[in-house]
Amino acid sequence: MYDLSEEDLQKIPAILQGLGYEVIAPLKFNQAVKLAPINADSKIELDYIRLMNSPRDFLLPNRETLFKYRSTATITSYGLKIRFPTVEGPCPAGISPEYSSQKKKLAFFGIHPCIANSIRYLDRVMLSDPPDPYYSDRRKDMFLAVLECDEGDEYCLCKTLGSYKVAKGYADILMRKSGNRYIAKPMTPLGETVLKQVGKEISGDYPKIVPRMKKEYEITNADESSIDSKDASETVKSCTLCCACTVTCPTCYCNDIEDRFSLVDPSNVERARTRMSCQRRCYSMIAGGTTFLKSKEDRFKWRLKHKFPFSINSFRLVGCVGCGSCIANCPARIDFRDHIARSVD
Amino acid sequence: MSLTNPYLPRQVTVNAVKNESLETKTLRLKLQNWSMSFVPGQFVQLLLPGVGEAPFCIASSPSDQRHIEITIMRRGMLTNAAHYLRPGDALGVRGPLGRPFPIDQFEGKDLLIIATGIGIAALKSLIEHVVGNRSKYGEVTLLYGARFPEDLVYREDMKHWSSSIKIIVTLSKATPEWQGLRGRVTDHLHEINLKDDMNIAICGSPTVMASIVQSLSLLGINKERIFVSLERHMKCGIGKCARCLIAGGKMVCKDGPVFKASEISLEAIGE
């Protein structure tokens, strides 16, 4: 175990940068705290409860180019409809597998345990057979410095879901505030090397503390039939379909793959992966306009079913890490805990 | 990177285009310097350069590994663009993907194939396989329902198939001059000699499939022997985009598109 002052802690990112990492840490932008790549003079915010974004935005970035190719599809004068008679030459054969390995390894500094556990869920999804090459390339050699919390706010659910503890292998350094100073515990040899340079080794055990919650819940009805059978029409009445719940969720990974090209030069096509939200109608639409998730209520329940029963079935892992982002960021204050959980006092 | 990229398509060229009906065309695609071994029921992701990618069931016999056929009904942006294709055009294909029909399990037993509308495209590969290996199967019946006589596809293939399998065609919106059967496929299930050990393969629109499965189970058919081929707009085809999740948490691209009716709920089959 190591003892560090806040100044010592702020030196860790520079050390990681020296080791060839691109360090991503919580920074304050106006009133919000969000993860962003740091530079020499950025001040890392360590006293925060909730982030606006999550590591998912770096591991599975929105609008990511999978590959590029040349085509000779033309655009007709009538609207932007693409007419397709003039494809010549080696179209898909000209595809260049344009994903060179990323120049720098990623390091996340100062994320909370729930967010670190969200990476575990993304790993289960993206690295299951066959692994996603783009994700696994970014994921390789990642460094995680996890800052444990003492206290959650009224939206936090990590105590209920057990995600206040970092899963094994998802932290290189565990840190926690202790009075005015910080204590840190290395979890890997690399974490030990980094901590040796800044901190003073002290004896004692790293404390195991369960964070205090403002409200406590227990998950009661998270199986498929009870999510389906309970009426949610009143809950979703005020939903504005802004998709903030899925945009800020650290484990939402649903995506769309589409061809994009500039109207000036339509021959250069980019095959891009963008994020898709299950709260949108087009998420479940198939050819001919058949839509499987028709109402707001269906889609609200779908999100819960994907996070709870479906994830447990396919990945043996709950898809919700209890960060509370979807509740805190909802402009209509829709709280999914009303549907599947019960408050305990 | 040593990993092979599952998102990269391989090149095919359009060999022939055949008009099947007013809204439907069959594309015969030649695989450029590669071959594909697939089992009936599997699908491919077809890339139209500049338009996008969509999943289509392979509608040709698995014995020809150098060519595949895909039947496309004009419905959305990509299928509209596909109708402009001409022989010689270059396309991309990823596949074969998905879990096929258990054709080994079908051998030696009677088989009932129920198709409605363009759903027959997903079953054509199975029919071709059965016709090609006729001696391995018991009595084989194709029950094919459509709305108008103009919607019937594979007319020439049917003539060829009718010598080895029994074909029943029914139209739900038959015109006055139509000589054959009228009504929905569910109205004609009783005309078929349903047996306990018979296997049933179904593909059609979601609502129709759900009602067929329901009627069959009312007639006492074990759901273990009913196989449905589902449709979702899959984007990745390898279980990473979660666009094809169905009730029960199964993915159509990896766990399907062919499911046993006992594995999934009626809700997952229907709309």
Q: What topology emerges from the helices and strands here?
A:
The complex is a heterodimer of chains A (345) and B (271).
Chain A: E1 2-4, H1 6-18, E2 21-29, E3 32-37, H2 56-59, E4 64-70, E5 74-75, E6 82-83, E7 105-111, H3 113-126, H4 133-139, E8 143-148, H5 158-161, E9 173-178, E10 181-186, H6 189-198, E11 200-201, E12 216-219, H7 224-229, H8 244-248, E13 255-261, E14 268-275, H9 296-315, H10 325-328, H11 337-340, E15 341-344
Parallel strand pairs in A: 2-7, 7-8, 8-9
Antiparallel strand pairs in A: 1-10, 1-11, 2-3, 4-14, 5-6, 9-10, 12-15, 13-14
Helix pairs in contact in A: 1-6
Chain B: E1 10-19, E2 24-31, E3 43-48, E4 52-57, E5 67-73, H1 77-82, E6 90-97, H2 103-106, E7 111-116, H3 120-132, E8 140-146, H4 155-161, E9 166-171, E10 181-182, E11 199-203, H5 206-218, E12 226-229, E13 245-246, E14 250-251, E15 258-260, H6 266-269
Parallel strand pairs in B: 7-8, 7-11, 8-9, 9-10, 11-12
Antiparallel strand pairs in B: 1-2, 1-6, 2-5, 3-4, 3-6, 12-15, 13-14
Protein described:
The complex is a heterodimer of chains A (345) and B (271). Chain A has one domain (2-344). Helix content of chain A is 26%, strand content 23%. Chain A is built from 11 helices and 15 strands. Chain A has an 8-stranded mixed β-sheet with strand order 3-2-7-8-9-10-1-11. The two termini of chain A are 35 Å apart. By secondary structure, chain B is α/β, with parallel strands linked by helices. Chain B folds into 2 domains: 10-97, Translation factors (Elongation Factor Tu (Ef-tu), domain 3, Beta Barrel), CATH 2.40.30.10; 103-269, Rossmann fold (3-Layer(aba) Sandwich). Chain B has helices spanning 77-82, 103-106, 120-132, 155-161, 206-218, 266-269, and strands spanning 10-19, 24-31, 43-48, 52-57, 67-73, 90-97, 111-116, 140-146, 166-171, 181-182, 199-203, 226-229, 245-246, 250-251, 258-260. Chain B has a 7-stranded mixed β-sheet, sandwiched between helices. Classes of the chains: A alpha+beta (345), B alpha/beta (271). Chains A and B meet through strand 4, strand 6, helix 4, strand 13 and helix 9 of A and strand 4, helix 1, strand 6 and strand 14 of B.
